[in-house]
Amino acid sequence: MLSSRRRNNGVLNMADKKPAGVPSLWSSSVFDDFRKEMDNVFEGFFGDRASAAARTGLPSLSMSGAIRPAIDIAENDTAITMTAELPGMDEDEVDLTVRDGALILKGEKKIEHDSDRDDVHVVERSYGSFQRSFPLPDRVDADAITAKFDRGVLVVTMPKKDEARTAQRKIKVGG
């Protein structure tokens, strides 16, 4: 696992040297190397980090450390509902738009400490920008989409068009 500690064009940073199995007091987590290895294993099975995170229940981290918001999508007879977890964010940090037949969720969680003043030893919380895009089905009335934000959870309701609600009929199955 030495490769995960390489810095500056392959030169090992002496501050990173420590006996194997001895956690550093100020490392971001004693499990960082283990987690990175597990991410690599899951990437091999499932493809990208997002897929692995969705299948393992772990938060998905982009290469910048920003969280890719976890999304649930559900549907009933009248609407499609998308729920997004945006912990630590306020509604003014979230942008939701419809463009070119897609629902676009963007946001930015800014870092909350002053690095010029504070002696920051560990940063585990995620921050940065994100953007996710979801194609809208034809049966959604894009002009009637609404959104509510409460305690870090965004709920987007996408009502179905009237013809999509009634365009259902029973088909007899016979031999």
Word description of this protein:
- The chain has helices spanning 32-46, 49-56, 162-166; strands spanning 6-7, 11-12, 71-75, 79-85, 94-99, 102-109, 128-135, 146-150, 153-159.
- It is elongated, with a radius of gyration of 22 Å.
- Mean pLDDT is 73; it is low at 1-19, 22-27 and 46-64.
- The termini are far apart.
- It folds into two domains: 1-60, no CATH class; 62-163, Sandwich (Immunoglobulin-like).
- The chain has 175 residues and is of the alpha+beta class.
- The strands form three sheets. The protein has a four-stranded antiparallel beta sheet, with no helix packed on it. Strands 5-6-7 form a three-stranded antiparallel beta sheet, with no helix packed on it. A two-stranded antiparallel ribbon has the order 1-2.
Topology:
Elements lengths: L5 E2 L3 E2 L19 H15 L2 H8 L14 E5 L3 E7 L8 E6 L2 E8 L18 E8 L10 E5 L2 E7 L2 H5 L9
Helix pairs in contact: 1-2
Protein name: Hsp20/alpha crystallin family protein
Family: Belongs to the small heat shock protein (HSP20) family.
InterPro entries: A-crystallin/Hsp20_dom, HSP20-like_chaperone, Small_HSP
